[in-house]
């Protein structure tokens, strides 16, 4: 075998990605980095370098930094909805409990980036507010469905307003609880969920 033939066989052929695949790759890298840093600290240069492309080429797929950040945040919101989706074969009450346990675990695993998400929305950052609102609305709709109150998923519905506010309570409780050393947590994740469900029942 000729030396040049061996070299050709040993050198991997880089597959040219379609525009959609490249966007998915870049957003995936953004999600990976979001595990350890807030969205506003994501480096466009670092994302491009990880993808093996230039900064300029990244802006071919996402016209502005804001467009890229929105895409990453929306993907993060979809991930949260996906990992908290309960097993539809379970009774509704068990599905709700399973959803909350998954939510608490998600916040615990990604506490710093989740806090930046919440604080970005609270601070009025337009694109974070938009994605946060979409995600909270989807979680609210899911809870209403599990409570057999899907018809109440209207902006002015008292039931919807209550569930929406209750989710903020669960979120804040999960953030504060997960920030404590494990040995200092006053109760387990299961007990946290039980308490949250008791609060929801008292509000009904």
TrEMBL record:
- Please give the InterPro entries that the UniProt record associates with this protein: DesT_TetR_C, Homeodomain-like_sf, HTH-type_TetR-like_transc_reg, HTH_TetR
* Residue ranges for the DNA-binding region feature of this UniProt entry: 43-62
Q: Which domain of life is it from?
A: Bacteria
**Entry keyword set:** DNA-binding, Transcription, Transcription regulation
Residue ranges annotated for the HTH tetR-type domain, each copy included: 20-80
| Pfam families in the record | TetR_C_46, TetR_N
This chain belongs to the protein called TetR/AcrR family transcriptional regulator
> What is the protein's species of origin?
Kribbella lupini
